[in-house]
What we know:
Elements: E1 2-9, E2 13-20, E3 38-41, E4 44-50, H1 65-80, E5 90-97, H2 103-113, E6 120-125, E7 135-142
Parallel strand pairs: 5-6
Antiparallel strand pairs: 1-2, 2-3, 3-4, 4-7, 5-7
Helix pairs in contact: 1-2
Amino acid sequence: MTTNATTTAPDAGITTRTALDLTGHPDVPARVGPFSHAVRWGDLLFVTGQMPTLPDTGEVVAGGVAEQTEQVLRNLTAVLAPCGAGLDDALMVRVYLEDFDDFDAVNTVYRRWFAEPRPARTCVGVRGLAVGARVEIDLIVGLVDGGER
C-alpha cells in the first residue's frame, strides 16, 4: 500500500512524497508503530529504523548484538528490495545502540554488509529501544535510475 502527497519545495518544483507500507511483502517485518516502512521523496528513500525482529513471528532474534545486527540488516534489505534498491545505495546510516560496549561487535557485522566506499554514518547511544532490541538502524538511500534495476 502506498500513500501519495504532493508537496511544493521552494525552487524545486512539485515533488510527490510517497509513503510505503510494505506489510505482507516477503521478509518484511510488520511495523511496530504508526509509521511507514519508508517514504520516497524524489530520488531519495527514507527508511524507518528496523528492529532485529523475525518477519514471520515479530519476535526479537535469539542471540546477542551481532545476531541482532545481522537481522536488522536482513530486514533493511527486505524493505529496500521492493523499492529497487539495496544497501549499496545507502547514502546515510544511523545506528542506535542501547549499550556502547556493543560498538565493536556491531562494526564487525556492519563491515560485512556495506561495501567500500561506505555511506556516511552516525552512531547514537540511547537509553532503550522498542521491543527490547539492542540495536536499530535507519537509512537514507539514493534511488539509482528512480529505483529501477
